[in-house]
Structures are given as structure tokens and as C-alpha cells.
Specification:
single chain, alpha+beta, 14-stranded mixed sheet, seven-stranded mixed sheet
Length: about 525
């Protein structure tokens, strides 16, 4: 089987943040014979692999493998206790967990310019298969990860997919990630707020924070690298990354709460170095996620919107609703009644990404077209009675954008449009209406931890949400995630919840299940 060989540094460099980082060469693999890796036998485990392993963005013939070397994850300089030089990292991929049937091996340089991270873009694998992978460096052997390739383009292979968002380290333990991993999904989507920017104690959950962030509020590259490392060192998160390939997109907290394009959270308070902060956050995000070379940041820009195809069963259109949006209306005050939200010229996605999405919907022949994105898509009125109030940070603050997307999928005759959402720290199940007709479905996952333990009992205010919005079929303020089973005939969504996150070891249960039938938009209770 062919081993992937990348362009070398002498053939290609990448302009990264104004300096030549040689990213293409530093993050891809040079071929090695399929033979024992250096140090085989009884290697020491874990000394530099404290951040675990991950894979992502599967294709029919390959996937991205990731790790980042760190002997001291919380080092304040963000370098993880590693030397200021490139280090060789060997990788191998096998058909079995014991690595008796190794199919590819190679070596890559983990360079300080990219935080000693590596991104190995595999090709030459078989479609629709499980593979196992691991790394070796500095005499250490990494944990083993499981990944999976996508089916061939014409296949209608069923898919087990779970999705999650909003994991505030301080607000609780990542037990939900462990339960998600133990379900053995084929694919995991993370819809944003993978980590949070705050200094310890600034964002406090009801009942208090059971653990603390290390370091100050993230503003520099060293800060963001340290924060990513603290999250990646969590064993439950590592377990989830090692269980399946992930497809990730960010929301706001990976940079700054409620940022919008080049506008920071509180524009009335000067933040003259915000674009430098954004640039640092983007670089650290790339370094710490299983992303392809296409996502290497260039200064303050990183193209994160992309598609992942699962045969002819599903197209996942992964959106970035932060980098290109107009600023929120009404000073971002919630709930808003500002009529500017109705301005058709306002955009949540930016014009180029909107064209990319609509063209992709027009060209799709998938049974299910899934929009993986961050903020609430369906219209939600947050005020009781005749008054109406909306979330300016969601699609309700960008009504023209939503109208164009819905009309786009209607014109394209998309067979089964489904929107996946995170951000709001609560479970929602919504029918998407357009002119009094159900035209799609929105599945909104609660947080992994953000907001603390939550409650199974609805408050009067939460009950009012349901009364004001009859298209909302479920609302829950518990922590958890959503597991789905997608087949040619239906998409089943199980809303998984935990009773607490303020201490480890919580059990998980299914709060409710819904089915979307092929060709029939809207939710049916399972």
C-alpha cells in the first residue's frame, strides 16, 4: 500500500502570520518502509504524549492524524516544556489494534513554529474501514487511536454520528465526552466553544467552579497554546478524540466571547491588539486540531468552512458563523427588538461563504444535507405575550442570511435539510418553518459542561419559551450531547443527558428521541 509523501520544505513554504513557518513540510509525513519503527520493543509510554492523539476530516482514502508533543502541558510559554528545535515523530497505521497488520508508516518533524504539533494527511487507505494509529517520539509511545475512512462517493452506508459543543473546563468534568466515546460513533462533530478564554474565576457556574483554568485570559499565542494544552490533557476528552475521527468548527470562545469578524466582544472598551489576538487564536486552533493543510492560517484568516462527505448518504456542510459576520445589532443586548436585524443586507456567513454553501446545496446528491454550525437557526421569541425579543447573536439577528439559506435549499430541492447547532448550553429540538410550512429540522445540543450541573426541572421562564414557540419540540437545561443514527430512510437523534458535571463519574441517559423521516421535514417522537 502506498505511503503518503508530502512536499518538502525546500519545495514549498507557507506564509504563516507574516513569517515563513514551513508549515506544509512540518505537518506532513515523509515515507518510511513498512518495517519496525525506531525504538520498537518495550518503549516507555506517555512522556511527551500528554495531550493524546486525534484524527479528523475523513475521506474515502484517508484521514488526518494529529498529535502534539508536550512534556509539561501547562508551561507558561506555551511550548509544553519542549526544546526550541524540530523533533522527529514516527507514525504508523494498522488494520488491527495490536498493530500486527501495519499498512503505512512514516516520519514527520514536530517543529516549535507550530507548537510541536503534527498533522499527517493520509491517502491510500481503503474506504469505509476502521484503522488504528499511534506515534513515537523521544523514546515515548503514544496512546492508540481509532479512526475510520468515509465510504465511496456513491455508497449509502449508514452512519453513527455524535455531536457536541461548549466545554468550559472550569464548570465541570468532561464525563459526557467519555460516554460519547463509549458509544463508538463512526464520526464526531464538534460545533464550537471547544475551550474558553477566561482567567480562572471570571466565568462562574451556578454552585461554583469545581476546577480552574491555568494562566491569564488568553490573548497571546503562548496563552492559547497553554489553554488548549490544559483541555487536551483531560483524560475524558482524550478518550473521545481517540475513539473516532472528529470534524471541528469554532464558535466564539476559542477567540473572545461574541466576537464578530474584526470586532471584539466590547467595542466600547478599546482592545487595540484584537487582530493580533485573533491571529494567535487561529494559529493555536490549527496547531491543536486534526485539520488539513487547507486550514493552515494565513495571518488573521483561516478558512474553516468545508465539506465532509459520507458517501451519498450525507454531506456535512461545516460553517463558520464568526469570522465573516456583521456585528450584532442592538449592542448585542439580549433579547433584542432592534429592527436592524431584519436588514436583508446583514450577513452571518459573509457573502463568499454563503455562495459556497448555496452552490454546494445545488450540487448535492446526498440523501441528507447537514449544516454543522454554531448558533440557533430557528426563530425563537424569548419574550412572553405580544412583545417579541430575539437573540442578536443567532440567526435571528441576521434574518436576511437565514432567508437566503432556506430559499437556497428550497430552490435546490434539498431532499432532507438538517441544521445542527451548539452555543446555547441547552438541548432544543426545533421544526424549521418558512411561511407557515415546515421546511427543515434543527437539532441543538446542550453543553458538555458550560453552565454547570443544570436542572431537569424547567423554570417558569423556560416553560414560557415553549409556549411562545410551538415549533420547539424539546427544551432541556441539562448537560450532555446528541447521538444520531443516519440511514437512507431516517435520521434518529437521541438527546443524551447527565444529572451533574460538578463531580466526575455521572451516569448518562436518553432524555428523548426523535426521528426525521426521509423526504418528510420535521420531528417525530421515537
Amino acid at each position: 500500500m502506498e505511503v503518503f509523501v508530502s512536499d518538502s520544505l525546500s519545495r514549498r513554504s507557507v506564509l504563516l502570520g507574516g513569517t515563513l513557518a514551513g508549515a506544509a513540510a512540518l505537518t506532513t509525513a515523509a515515507a518510511l518502509p513498512v518495517a519496525a519503527l525506531p525504538g520498537a520493543g518495550s518503549p516507555r509510554r506517555g512522556e511527551v504524549f500528554t495531550l493524546g492523539v486525534a484524527s479528523g476530516d475523513p475521506a474515502p482514502d484517508g484521514v488526518v492524524l494529529w498529535t502534539r508533543l508536550a512534556a509539561d502541558p501547562l508551561a507558561e510559554d506555551g511550548m509544553g516544556g519542549m526544546p526550541g528545535k524540530a523533533l522527529p515523530v514516527q507514525w504508523e497505521v494498522a488494520e488491527d489494534e495490536r498493530f500486527t497488520r501495519v499498512v503505512q508508516r512514516g516520519e514527520v518533524q514536530a517543529a516549535p513554529e507550530l507548537g510541536h504539533s503534527v498533522h499527517v494527511e493520509l491517502t491510500g487507505l481503503r474506504p469505509d474501514r476502521d484503522y488504528f494509529y499511534r506515534f513515537r517520539a523521544e523514546g515515548s509511545l503514544s496512546p492508540t487511536g481509532r479512526t475510520r475512512t468515509a465510504p465511496l462517493p456513491g455508497a449509502l452506508t449508514s452512519l453513527s454520528m455524535a455531536f457536541a459543543s461548549c466545554a468550559q473546563y472550569e464548570h465541570g468534568y468532561f464525563t459526557a465526552y467519555r460516554h460519547l466515546a463509549d458509544e463508538h460513533p463512526d464520526l464526531v462533530l464538534h460545533l464550537g466553544d471547544y475551550n474558553y478564554e477566561y482567567e480562572a474565576g471570571v466565568y462562574v457556574a451556578p454552585g461554583g467552579n469545581p476546577r480552574d483554568h491555568a494562566g491569564p485570559e488568553t490573548e497571546t499565542l503562548a496563552n492559547y497554546r497553554q489553554r488548549h494544552a490544559q483541555y487536551k490533557a483531560d483524560p475524558d476528552l482524550q478518550h473521545a478524540h481517540a475513539a473516532a475521527p472528529w470534524v471541528v468548527v469554532w464558535d466564539d470562545h476559542e477567540v473572545d466571547n461574541n466576537w464578530a469578524d474584526e470586532v471584539h466582544e466590547k467595542p466600547e472598551i478599546p482592545q487595540p491588539h484584537f487582530l493580533e489576538r485573533r491571529k494567535a487564536a487561529f494559529q493555536a486552533y490549527y496547531e491543536n486540531m486534526p485539520l488539513r493543510r487547507a486550514q493552515i492560517p494565513r495571518g488573521i484568516d483561516l478558512r474553516l468552512h468545508r465539506r465532509v462527505q459520507w458517501g451519498r448518504l450525507a454531506n456535512f456542510h461545516m460553517l463558520d458563523t464568526r469570522q465573516y459576520r456583521d456585528d450584532q445589532v442592538g449592542g448585542d443586548k439580549f433579547p433584542t427588538q432592534d429592527p436592524a436585524r431584519l436588514d436583508p443586507k446583514r450577513s452571518l456567513t459573509g457573502a463568499e461563504q454563503e455562495r459556497w454553501l448555496l452552490k454546494g446545496l445545488q450540487r448535492s446528491n446526498a440523501r441528507w444535507d447537514v449544516l454543522g454550525q454554531q448558533v440557533m437557526f430557528a426563530e425563537i421569541d424569548y419574550l412572553s405575550g405580544e412583545e417579541k425579543g430575539y437573540n442578536p447573536d443567532a440567526w435571528d439577528g441576521y434574518v436576511g442570511s437565514r432567508e437566503r439559506v432556506v430559499q437556497g435549499w428550497q430552490r435546490a430541492k434539498v431532499r432532507n435539510p438538517v441544521v445542527l447547532t451548539g452555543d446555547v448550553h441547552t438541548h432544543w429540538a426545533n421544526d424549521v418553518h418558512h411561511r407557515d410550512e415546515i421546511v427543515g429540522t434543527e437539532l441543538t445540543t446542550t453543553s458538555i459542561t458550560s453552565g454547570g450541573d443544570g436542572s431537569a426541572k424547567l423554570t417558569d421562564k423556560e416553560k414560557a419559551y415553549l409556549k411562545e414557540n410551538p415549533h420547539v419540540r424539546l427544551y432541556s437545561n441539562q448537560r450532555g450531547y446528541i447521538s444520531t443514527r443516519i440511514t437512507p430512510d431516517e435520521l434518529r437523534a437521541d438527546y443524551r443527558v447527565l444529572p451533574y458535571v460538578s463531580k466526575p463519574g455521572a451516569p448518562v441517559e436518553t432524555l428523548a428521541s426523535f426521528v426525521i423521516e426521509d423526504g418528510r421535514p420535521g420531528l417525530n417522537e421515537a
